[in-house]
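Q: Here's a chain of 408 amino acids. Please give me its 3D structure as tokens.
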Amino acid sequence: MSSTNVKKVALAYSGGLDTSVILKWLEETYACEVVTFTADLGQGEEVEPARAKAQAMGVKEIYIDDLREEFARDFVFPMFRANAIYEGEYLLGTSIARPLIAKRLIEIANETGADAISHGATGKGNDQVRFELGAYALRPDIRVIAPWREWDLTSRETLLAYAEKHGIPIEMKRGKASPYSMDANLLHISYEGGILEDPWAEPEEDMWRWSVSPENAPDRSAYVELTYECGDIVAIDGERMTPAAVLAKLNQLGGANGIGRLDIVENRYVGMKSRGCYETPGGTIMLKAHRAIESITLDREVAHLKDELMPRYASLVYTGYWWSPERRMLQQMIDASQAPVNGVVRVKLYKGNVSVVGRKSESNSLFDMNIATFEDDRGAYNQKDAEGFIKLNALRLRIAGRKGASFL
């Protein structure tokens, strides 16, 4: 399809320098109409100014959508039912936002009759893959325009020069500009670039936005009780809340106690290693607490099977396959496992640490104190049974030993 075949493009628009230049570049390069879409995912910044910027650039169809509840309910919470964590540490804060943006972008394209979509992700990162895999899954015939893979505006200086030449309104922030590339939503905030490109360099303390340092956190621990229904937190300290409100509250509690900072080098899907820093205070609490409630409500083999499947699930989220049939299949299995995951978890927050100090489930606990006790179990468990259990499980080892197998 040539550029002359594009009549209207739905653009994921932040209102910043990159996407404002992209807006004009699309009009100029493709001679098309542009529809803008700005998502409020709880990034903590005003999204309405994007409307004024789009209007100033002559955009007629402007979408500003509050997606916080949908994001938490339909994306973050299902992911945490799986205890998903990428490469042992990353809680997938950026990854999980992309399928929702792709979904809404396709919906807007359908509503407005757009025959193409566009985004501001670079050709070096994971986001281009996530946006486009989602878009193609939801509308197979969609045309995707990725300016960073087409144009020659490869630096901030060239972008500013293009903006000046075309009269693009760019808000120049006063004071010290952040040296980092940041992305925020209700689950986390990420930092890349600047001194972080050197994996030996320690992040500067003033980089962090959501959390105090563990050293400066309160000297008194904070206790929080989380109520679960079918694997999801529905109340904090007895107060029922929506998913987005739960996440916002846990971010506040975790951040105030120095919880959720992470500094990692991860393997990007496109092949390179990348160093990034993340703040995920609420998510860090959620992961710890969810595993705690599962520990008393899930059957052993179900729990172990979930743990085996989790890395695959996390990889699917990280690499952009949220809308794939395999992720949906895994989600159905995971969601089915959560029916008995009901109860309350009590956690202690102290100077960067989350400690589980209590867990209970009135109707679904598989923990039997009469069996587990080291005191008199009153016949609930016959310890003599263990002898036959051990001998049966040792049978193959004994046979191998008699045949001459030696491990010494």
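Q: Can you summarize the key feature?
A: The chain has a mean pLDDT of 93.
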